[in-house]
Specification:
Elements lengths: L14 H16 L4 E2 H7 L6 H11 L5 E6 L2 E6 L19 H13 L2 E2 H8 L5 H9 L3 E6 L7 E5 L1 H6 L11 H6 L19
Antiparallel strand pairs: 1-3, 2-3, 4-6, 5-6
Helix pairs in contact: 1-3, 4-5, 4-6
InterPro entries: ScpB_csome_segregation, WH-like_DNA-bd_sf, WH_DNA-bd_sf
Protein name: SMC-Scp complex subunit ScpB
Keywords: Cell cycle, Cell division, Chromosome partition, Cytoplasm
C-alpha cells in the first residue's frame, strides 16, 4: 500500500487485514451500543491486532457520513458532526440549565467523587434537591457510593453519557477554564473555590 494513499473500500486493504477488518466493521455496525476493547477482542481471531484495525477503519471513515468514534473507552459509529443536525427527525426542545445546575455539573466533573455538602461549600451557597435531580435525569451525574465519614453521605460523579454527550474519551480530557467560558458553558463570575485545571500539554 503506497504511503499517503486513501483507501475507500475495505476490500482494498492488504489481504492479511481484510477478513479481520470486515468482521470488526460488521461488529461495530451491528452493535446496539458502544463496545469496549475487550468485547471486540473476544469476537475477533486471536492473532488480530485490534488497535491497528481500529486505526485503519477510523481513517477509512474519517471523511464519510459516519465516523468511528471512541468515547468513555468504547467504540461506535456515529453520524459525522457536521451532518448530525440534518439527521434529526423530530424537533428537540433544548433545556437550558440553570446557573446552579451548570456550576454544580462543573464542580462534580472536576472534583469527583464529591458530596452534596462539598459542592455547596465550593459554590458558597446551598442549592435545592431539584438541581441534582435535573443532572441525574439527563444521566450526566449519578451516585457512585458513600464517603467513609460520619453520616456516610452520598458521593457523586459523572456518567458515560456525560462523556458521550460532550465528546470526551475520558474525564481527564475535560477542557480548561478559558475554554469553558468561551463556549458559554460557565458564567463569567464563578464560585471563588471552583478549581478548574488548565489542559495539560
Amino acid at each position: 500500500m503506497a504511503e499517503g494513499k486513501t483507501i475507500n473500500n475495505v476490500m482494498d486493504f492488504p489481504s492479511e487485514h481484510r477478513d479481520n477488518l470486515r468482521i470488526l466493521e460488521a461488529l461495530l455496525f451491528a452493535a446496539s451500543e458502544p463496545l469496549d476493547a475487550e468485547s471486540l477482542k473476544a469476537r475477533l481471531p486471536k492473532d488480530a491486532n485490534l488497535n491497528k484495525l481500529l486505526g485503519l477503519i477510523k481513517a477509512q471513515y474519517e471523511n464519510r457520513g459516519v465516523n468511528l468514534i471512541k468515547t468513555a473507552k468504547k467504540w461506535s459509529f456515529k453520524t459525522a458532526p457536521d451532518l448530525a443536525s440534518m439527521m434529526q427527525k423530530e424537533k428537540i426542545v433544548q433545556r437550558k440549565l440553570s446557573k446552579a445546575a451548570t456550576e454544580t455539573l462543573a464542580i462534580i466533573a472536576y472534583h469527583q467523587p464529591v458530596t452534596r455538602a462539598e459542592v455547596e461549600d465550593i459554590r458558597g451557597v446551598h442549592f435545592s434537591p431539584g438541581t441534582l435531580d435535573v443532572l441525574m435525569e439527563l444521566n450526566w451525574v449519578r451516585p457512585i457510593g458513600r464517603k467513609k465519614i460520619p453520616g456516610r453521605p452520598i458521593i457523586y460523579g459523572t456518567t458515560e453519557r456525560f462523556l458521550e454527550y460532550f465528546g470526551l474519551e475520558q474525564v481527564t480530557d475535560l477542557p480548561g477554564l478559558e475554554e469553558l467560558k468561551a463556549a458559554g458553558l460557565l458564567e463569567s463570575r464563578l464560585p471563588p473555590n471552583l478549581d478548574i485545571r488548565e489542559p495539560q500539554e
